[in-house]
Amino acid sequence: MSTAHFTFCTLFCLTVAVMPVAAQTSGGPLKPFKDDLFSGQTVLSTADGGASEVLDYDEMRDINGRDEVPERRVKRQYVDMGIKRVQALETVTAGGRAVEVGRVGPASGQSFTVIFIHGRGGDRRLGMNDYTFGGNFNRLKNLAAANGGTYYVPSVRSFDAQGVADVAALIADAKRSSGGKPVILTCASMGSFICYGISRDATAVADLKGMAILGGAVDPEFPKSAFARAKKPVWFTHGSVDKVYSADQQATIFRTMLKAGQPARFSVFQTGGHGTPVRMTDWRAVLNWILSR
Description:
With 293 residues, the chain is of the alpha/beta class. Helices cover 34% and strands 24% of the residues. The protein has helices at 3-12, 22-25, 35-38, 59-64, 124-128, 136-146, 161-177, 192-199, 202-206, 226-229, 247-259, 276-280, 283-291; strands at residues 15-20, 42-47, 52-55, 67-69, 73-74, 87-94, 97-104, 113-117, 150-154, 183-188, 210-214, 234-239, 264-269.
């Protein structure tokens, strides 16, 4: 048994539950999209009353077996390219700020909005790429559009107060243009700095339904934020052997929030690295859970 496996069994492995994720998270407002390919992950163990889970991950199966060209192009069955008919690259002007975005779905009247924040070195093209990360962005795009929602990927110019202000303006615009429908903010890697900045902005928090943080940084102040005080739902996903941001430390933040009564979930991909959550997060399960809170 590896050290990483022992650590996460110490944290999470209270109940052995070898079953597909879909068997536990099939309910919710979003109808399925390629669930047979994306939602069949095996739960190795659960803890915290089911709020945390360790998921099976295998690089040879989940990268080499899934991709036509490993890490560059997923096999064709994982994507539906009809989504290109309802997507655009544009500039959203909101709150006096101009934000370059990729958009999938309607610009107004949407039933919900998902905003994805990329990490360092990325831009809006990353979250719009259909073939990388095992086709997981293509699935997210299709889930949004097929359920009347809108998906935005802004190009974050800086991971500081200016970047937070840009995203806060986009959140407010999505809330307004949708007629007050739910807005979900999702952040990967260094993009989590934006989620944490937004979490301290009470006005932006009021416009949010919830958050998902994928392989994110660890922010000790997050449990004290306006977002946490408002008891908004948050789902963390993390690779157990992430060498950039500690899964153990993120688990501590999760447990602090859970004990305070906040709706929180934590999914750990056993043996997964820093990029694993972007590839493996089950978007339908995450969005359904947040929308149902």
